[in-house]
Specification:
Blueprint lengths: L5 E9 L6 E5 L10 E2 L2 E3 L6 H13 L9 E9 L4 E9 L14 E4 L16 H9 L2
Parallel strand pairs: 1-6
Antiparallel strand pairs: 1-4, 2-3, 2-7, 5-6
Bound molecules: 8-OXO-2'-deoxyguanosine-5'-triphosphate (8DG).
């Protein structure tokens, strides 16, 4: 049996009224820097996934999301070299406040079809055709 370090990260596809998806660029100095990702992050000890995501969205983007507005969409299971990422992806179309880059990260609203132009972490690659099917162009 192998011994893997399983990392649970919660992420969300925020969708605006034009059916565009919010991508955030990972800052310099971090692992996978410069790549475009879905907002989210790791759970803190004792947190439920939805609670963690609501916290991350408040801290990173300054928006308030209510738990019933987070719907499970799909997940990724990806073997990175040093850990195995398990990442539930939620979808959310409703929030309060305006999206702001509170951590200095670049943000971009993109159509699903345009996602190929924004290099993403390898784990996210399989999500692109899934979102294109779901949201169309
Ligand atoms: N938020 C998010 N993380 C992703 C995506 N795809 C993907 O591989 N990841 C990976 C990158 C990181 O290894 C991890 C997210 O961790 P994080 O952003 O909370 O933490 P971090 O890299 O700053 O790491 P750390 O300083 O807390 O150790 O999940 C994605 O679409 N969104």
């Amino acid at each position: 049996m192998s011994s893997v370090k399983l990392t649970l990260v919660v992420a969300v596809a925020l969708i605006d009224t034009d059916n565009r998806i919010l991508l955030a660029q990972r800052p310099e100095g971090k692992q996978l820097a410069g790549l475009w990702e879905f907002p989210g992050g790791k759970l803190e000890p004792g947190e439920r996934p939805e609670e963690a995501l609501i916290r991350e969205l408040r801290e990173e983007l300054g928006i308030a999301v209510k738990e019933p507005c987070l719907a499970p969409l799909t997940f990724v299971s990806h073997a990175y070299e040093t850990f195995h990422l398990l990442m539930p992806l939620y979808i959310c179309r409703r929030w309060e406040g305006f999206v702001q880059p509170l951590e200095g990260q670049a943000l971009k609203w993109v159509k699903a079809q345009e996602m190929r132009g924004y290099p993403m972490p390898p784990a996210d690659e399989p999500l692109i055709p899934f979102l294109v099917d779901l949201l169309g162009s």
